[in-house]
Design goal:
Blueprint: E1 3-8, H1 17-25, E2 34-38, H2 41-49, E3 54-58
Antiparallel strand pairs: 1-2, 1-3
Subunit structure: Part of the 50S ribosomal subunit.
InterPro entries: Ribo_uL30_ferredoxin-like_sf (IPR036919), Ribosomal_uL30_bac-type (IPR005996), Ribosomal_uL30_ferredoxin-like (IPR016082)
Protein name: Large ribosomal subunit protein uL30
């Protein structure tokens, strides 16, 4: 299966609680932190809901 790499490029401060929890669930804790995930429907849905905070690259 394909993998994606997500990087937190904008802060989750002053965002709705739901978006903060989504960023945490993706494994991103600090600004510029990077996490790698298998591409599946649940991960892609989480990425889509906070795409304005992330930078996504395919591996």
């Amino acid at each position: 299966m394909a993998q994606i790499q997500v990087k937190l490029v904008r802060s989750a401060i002053d965002r709705p609680e739901r978006q903060k929890r989504t960023v945490q669930a993706l494994g991103l804790r600090k600004l510029n932190s990077v996490a790698t995930h298998e591409t599946n429907a649940s991960i892609l849905g989480m990425v889509a809901s906070v795409k304005h905070l992330l930078e996504v690259t395919e591996l």
